Amino acid sequence: MRPFVFPFSQHIGAPSVPVVQPGDRVQRGQCIAEAGEGLGSPIYTSVSGMVLEVTGNAVIVRADDVQPKDYVPLTAQAPLECIRQAGIVGLGGAGFPTYQKLAVPFSHDGVVIANASECEPILNHNIDALEKDCRPMIRGLQLAMDLVHADKGVIAIKAIHGDAVRALQQAIADDDRLALHFLPNIYPVGEERAVVREVLGTLLDAGSLPSKAGAVIINVETLQRMAEAVDAKKPLIDKDLTVAGKLNGPEVQIFHDMPLGMAVSDVLERAGGLGKEYGELIMGGPFMGKRTTLDAPIVKTTGGIIATEMFLPGPEKIGLLVCACGADEKRLREMAASMGSAVAGVAFCKQDHEVKPGVRKCDNPGHCPGQVQRVMTLKKEGAQALLISNCTDCTNTVMACAPQLHLPVYHCTDGALRAVHHKLIRRIKV
After folding, report:
1. Which residues contact 280 (CB under 8 A, 6 or more apart)?
2. How far is Cα 146 from Cα 86, in angstroms, rounded to an integer?
3. Is residue 99 a contact partner of residue 84, using CB atoms and an 8 Å limit?
4. Are 365 and 188 within 8 A, CB to CB?
5. Residue of 13, 261, 307, 318 with fewest CB within 10 Å of its CB?
6. Is 299 exposed, middle or buried, given 0-12, 13-18 or 19+ CB atoms closer than 10 A?
7. Distance between CA atoms of residues 168 and 188, nearest Å
């Protein structure tokens, strides 16, 4: 097994600051990096062992052959302080420190929304957790409601997840503050502003946070880890994952409580090992995930590891249509290169806007006004096919015009979805 690597930047905000040195013995659950200033979050070792190296970016630990199941408990007592001390951040997205979301109570009529959309295709560890035991998530939701003085809690989930829905309905039957809200089975219905739109009927501006609509949104695993921190005094040292694709085993596997810092290669070994041929390794989901390597570590925001199908050869020149809800321009260029195609031109979805340098947002996630003009522009620029990262609705509009212009369409999710025999994102009738 490779050494465990704990990067200092696993969340939005300042990098963590190491508090250990090479040669130190550490115990599972021990703090190895304190929170930096400005949205900081501490980091704990998930294994007992010896610190091999402290670089400018990470602490590297060699794990002992025999690992304890217990951990060094948190010392905090108050719920919000437990959540802060545990190092909990958003575990389904960009990694915003959770205690900051909960630090300012509502003055009136607030709602906490549990985001159980499991929005990305293939990823299923959150729904699996709810089917096995939804009580930890509900406990976390109740804690969040108490902390922000919310009078209502809503669990936003797709109706297609029948077993999870039935478990939740039974579990919340005696709490009249809690309710379910059924989401449509489209991507990206789990994006925060899409959740607010679907649950509260409010469309926020691209630069606005859910708090503007009187809401706090927290995903399923984050709520579960909050309950662990408060009730079991457990720091954030483990992660739930979906591992899928070209494996020597089942195509989609769920792992609960995998230790943070473990190398991708060792995670794949637990899933049976990589198949003989694969296109790339993705950390995350098919839409928003990034290319990773075998020696990269699992971090707080890791939701999936996918070994994709081999890349199909593309045309000589390909046009990129970028959507704020999916792979960005850099990612699409990377994929085009793997297909052997030169980029003829780049267009952005008409609702894709740069809200601040390097950050693009969609005006209305999942609702598309049409892409015909963009497609025609790419055709004029010499594109012989399109590589797109569009959401469900945007892809529908692309497929309404691209075939008529004799432009084949490739989607950023194709390699991942083909690897698990999943229906491709193309024209979808809702």
Report:
1. 291, 307, 308, 311, 338, 415
2. 19
3. yes
4. yes
5. 13
6. buried
7. 23
Q: How would you classify residue 251: left for phi > 0, otherwise alpha for psi between -120 and 50, otherwise beta?
A: alpha
What letter would DSSP give residue 425? Answer: S
Best CA proximity match to 118, nearest among 152, 151, 147, 155: 155
Residue identified by tokens 């115990």 is 27
Average pLDDT of the segment spanning 355-383 = 90
Residue 356's pLDDT is 80
Quick check: 206 and 181 in contact, CB under 8 A? no
Q: List pLDDT tens digits, range 33-87.
A: 999 988 899 999 999 999 999 999 999 999 999 999 999 999 999 999 999 999 9
This prediction has a pTM of 0.96
Distances (CA, A) of 372 to 182, 325, 361, 397, 400: 31, 18, 20, 7, 8
Q: Which helix (H) or strand (E) holds 381?
A: none
E-only strand ranges, 73-230: 111-116, 152-158, 178-183, 215-219
With tokens 């994709």, the residue in question is 308
Whole-number pLDDT of residue 202: 96
Question: Left if phi > 0, otherwise alpha if psi is -120 to 50, otherwise beta: which for 5?
Answer: beta
> What pLDDT is recorded for position 429?
61
What percent helix, strand, coil does the chain show, rounded to 5? 25, 25, 50
pLDDT at 430 over 60: no
pLDDT of residue 428: 65
Taking 80 as the threshold, does the pLDDT of residue 427 lie above it? no
> Averaging pLDDT over each range in 232-241, 353-362, 396-405, which range is the top one?
232-241
Output the average pLDDT for the chain: 95
In this structure, are residues 161 and 186 in contact, taking their beta carbons and an 8 Å threshold?
no
d(C-alpha 144, C-alpha 277), whole Å: 45
What is the spatial order of strands in the sheet that 178-183 belongs to?
Answer: 178-183, 152-158, 111-116, 215-219
**Between residues 430 and 115, which one has the greater pLDDT?**
115
Residue type, 365: P
Contact 248, 275 (CB under 8 A): yes
